[in-house]
Amino acid sequence: MKKWIIFLFLSGLLVIGCSKSPLEPNQDEQLASNREATTELPSSPKIISNSDWQNSFISLSSDSSTFTFDARVDTLYDFKVNDIMISTEGEGFLRRIIDIQRTRQHLVIKTEQAAITEVVEDGEARFETSFSQLDPPRIDYLLDGVYVNQGLQKGNAGGDITFDFDLLLGDFDGQSNTTNDQLRVAGHFEMSVNMKGELKIKYFQLKKFSLDQQVKQQMDLNVTIGYPIVNLNPELKVAELTYPPIWVNLAGVPVLLTPVIEFYIGTDFTVNAAVQLHVGEQFGYAIGARYEDSKWHSYSQLDKDCWARTPDLSGEVDIKAYVKPVFKLKVFSVVSPKLSGKLFGEILANPEANPWWKLYGGLQVLLGVDMQIWGKTLFDKNFELITFRQQITEASGPFPGL
Prior knowledge:
It is a single chain. The protein has helices at residues 25-33, 50-56, 74-77, and strands at residues 18-20, 46-47, 57-60, 66-70, 84-87, 93-102, 106-113, 123-130, 138-141, 146-148, 161-171, 182-202, 205-225, 229-232, 235-242, 246-250, 253-271, 275-292, 295-308, 312-313, 317-331, 334-349, 357-369, 381-394. It is mainly β. It is built from three helices and 24 strands. The strands form three sheets. Strands 1, 9, 14, 15, 16, 17, 21, 22, 23 and 24 form a ten-stranded antiparallel sheet that branches. Strands 8, 10, 11, 12, 13, 18, 19 and 20 form an eight-stranded antiparallel sheet that branches.
């Protein structure tokens, strides 16, 4: 009999037989009892229904390894060491029990992370999706002066996310009404993501794992510096988008995913003069990573367009400023994978050089995969898929007056 597992990957998901958490009323009992023969299990995992969890859960240790329940839950599940415990509460748990302490009132279970291939023997699946297929996220703003388009609705064409920012990163005299001594980064950012993937599991081992993404990113970035600064290089997390968890029923075994996008703004520069800088960039890129026959392969393709206004500056500067969205997928609370696409503008100015300033734009794309959520014997993998830096414009000659 052909066996199927649903494969889910990175921030947008379209999967066979999926539905959303929290569970529908009649699904709560189905998850704990459904044992269709479409997937073979090394041992039956202990799937805690949402109602049992809510009625019996007491606390979780700070490292998410030790669970304390009301002792009465033990009569429902008969927990044993080496059992795999599954829950769709919160961001979900897939944990192997390594120790149990029982008292009259409490059941204390110590656990370690388990893997998908410990509960699924054979299966394969494919998917293709985009952000437009996800329900709107919860948006957490971590700094004032940031706005993420709240109008993202499921089914919105392209699933674009727009992000506007106007951040005051420094104020020499501490007076907001004097702007000629401030460090300010402002701009506009847009992006869309489409992806597809494939997974194959055979005899409880991951045989194939692939991800392909098409990404579009556009940025207009303005940097204003009103006073000399030496070696300032903060990276600030400014907003986080958390999408509603999605659970997938794998022949009675629920897998929970939580897509997350984080936005960072960063600067790295030494400035000995006031500066006004504007850089615009638009990148489209396709990337892919594949694990097959115990080997990794990757590829990348890039289309780019960069533009800039003539900067306003009067001395030596070395400036890089960037916007970096980070796409994460939490699989049972474990981040796997993580993709970052950093767009940056950079200017180098030296009054003794000819031309005395040059302005650059660029993109860096990194992909990291935590593989142990998929298989306990697999190693994590990191890729530097794109590193691009291009000169956009330069001064017409030497520093004025020399």
